[in-house]
Amino acid sequence: MRERGVQTSIHYPPLHLTRAFRPASAASLPRTEDYATRTVTIPLFPHMTAEQQTLVIESVEHALRGVRPAAGTRVPWSAS
User: How far apart (Å, rounded) are the C-alpha atoms in residues 80 and 70?
Assistant: First the structure.
């Protein structure tokens, strides 16, 4: 998406892995950690122009083309 001029960033790191919580948490949260590796934040703000919205939407669609979810995984863009 960067090549198309759309900034992305890490959504939220798992809290149990952050410096503030790490000392108090020895928990292993594999689902949380897996989710964090697959989640990004895309541009979203109140005064986005129609052109900016279209660019983000088309960039997401382009990025997801050819992506095949793991068997049994339900994803928002799946037709089933």
Answer: 14
